[in-house]
């Protein structure tokens, strides 16, 4: 075991042994089978799954994924609170006449006017993000929906799709087209739509940019990759309303739990948890499932987030782990 000191003084355990490729596929599929929908709570995806209209799903999904940092329970509370305020459901709860007109999330965002409606967000906060940041982001999403009809159409326009440049060829037949430029384009074009508000209501540009953190600066872009997983995959878990992005192109949303278990299984050999590491994990997962590598993300994350996996090998707790004989700890 190599214990290396990473930035900020945290120790990153990177086993020296090589992955057990001969049985890893089978064990990883066993892990996926052991974490079904019944293990979802707490997760912001719970909020997304309450909606059935594709436009609502992509709007709520964007907000829920953007707030998926800090505690999962806190993220669920924050996105629920934000949606209540934006749709008018909060007013309904307070017996306000406007509550009778509570809107769907997509309709509310389309109608959103940051200067007029910012008061509805007063007091909303998630960690260091607050009222003015959320008001600006809702304005951006509203502009996109009004001008392009959907977040999917806006994303696809920067993906070499129908509304963009000709698709770039994949590096090889086995490697799907890189999704990083599309994510970066989405972020860059969205941020241009930030509202110009008076000094009292103006958002901090860096905080608005935090909602659109793409891979251009090297970060893992975990929250946007999570949103794309929810939008582009469809199974018992992910709603997958989008049809224009092949799930084979997705990159794993690399959070601290996925990175840790990936290192234990040899899917990740780097100590940084950045975009290059997210790509490394994804490329290794493609060896297990080339058409849908990100399908392993939920189970890897649950194993860590639910506290099932200790940070060191423990005979009693590890004996029931589907990864027991591929874990390199
Ligand atoms: S065997 Fe134990 S340490 Fe390894 S992944 Fe499973 S629970 Fe975690």
What is the structure about, briefly put?
This protein is mainly α and 329 residues long. It contains 16 helices and four strands. The strands form two sheets. The protein has a two-stranded antiparallel ribbon. A two-stranded antiparallel sheet has the order 3-4.
Order of helices and strands: EEHHHHHHHEEHHHHHHHHH
Strand content: under 5%
Structural category:
mainly alpha
Gyration radius from CA atoms, angstroms: 20 Å
Record the strand order, biggest sheet. 1-2
Stretches where pLDDT is under 50 for at least 5 consecutive residues are 161-171
The number of helical segments is: 16
Give the number of DSSP strands: 4
> Mean of the pLDDT scores?
90
How many structural units, i.e. domains? 2
Shape assignment: globular
Rounded to the nearest angstrom, the distance between the terminal CA atoms is 7 Å
Bound molecules: iron/sulfur cluster
Q: Fraction of residues in helices?
A: 40-55%
Biggest sheet architecture = 2 strands, antiparallel
Describe this structure in words.
The chain is 46% helix and 4% strand. By secondary structure, it is mostly helical. It has 2 domains: 112 residues, Endonuclease Iii, domain 2, CATH 1.10.1670; 207 residues. The strands form 2 sheets. The protein has a two-stranded antiparallel sheet with strand order 1-2. The protein has a two-stranded antiparallel ribbon with strand order 3-4. Strand 1 and strand 2 form a beta hairpin. Helix 3 packs antiparallel against helix 12, helix 9 packs across helix 10 and helix 13 packs across helix 15. The longest helix has 18 residues. Iron/sulfur cluster binds next to helix 13.
């Amino acid at each position: 075991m190599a214990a290396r000191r990473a930035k900020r003084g945290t120790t990153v355990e990177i086993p020296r042994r090589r992955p057990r490729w001969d049985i890893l596929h089978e064990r990883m599929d066993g892990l996926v089978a052991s974490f079904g929908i019944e293990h979802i709570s707490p997760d912001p995806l719970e909020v997304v799954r309450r909606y059935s209209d594709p436009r609502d799903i992509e709007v709520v999904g964007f907000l829920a994924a953007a707030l998926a940092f800090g505690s999962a329970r806190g993220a669920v509370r924050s996105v629920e609170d934000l949606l209540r305020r934006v749709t008018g459901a909060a007013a309904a709860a307070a017996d306000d006449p406007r509550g009778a007109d509570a809107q769907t999330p997509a309709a509310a965002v389309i109608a959103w006017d940051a200067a007029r409606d910012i008061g509805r967000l007063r007091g909303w906060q998630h960690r260091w993000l607050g009222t003015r940041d959320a008001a600006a982001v809702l304005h951006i999403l509203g502009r996109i929906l009004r001008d392009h009809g959907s977040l999917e159409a806006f994303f696809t326009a920067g993906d070499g799709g129908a509304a963009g440049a000709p698709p770039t060829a994949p590096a090889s037949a086995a490697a799907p087209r890189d999704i990083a430029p599309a994510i970066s384009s989405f972020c860059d074009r969205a941020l241009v739509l930030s509202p110009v508000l008076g000094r009292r209501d103006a958002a901090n540009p860096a905080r608005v940019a935090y909602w659109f953190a793409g891979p251009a600066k090297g970060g893992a872009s975990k929250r946007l990759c999570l949103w794309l997983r929810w939008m582009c995959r469809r199974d018992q878990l992910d709603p997958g309303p989008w049809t224009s992005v092949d799930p084979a192109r997705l990159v794993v949303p690399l959070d601290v739990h996925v990175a840790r278990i990936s290192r234990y299984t040899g899917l990740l050999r780097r100590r940084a948890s950045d975009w290059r590491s997210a790509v490394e994990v994804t490329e290794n997962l493609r060896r297990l499932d080339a058409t849908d590598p990100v399908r392993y993300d939920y189970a890897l994350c649950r194993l860590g987030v639910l506290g099932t996996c200790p940070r060191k090998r423990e005979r009693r707790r590890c004996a029931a782990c589907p990864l027991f004989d591929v874990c390199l700890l």
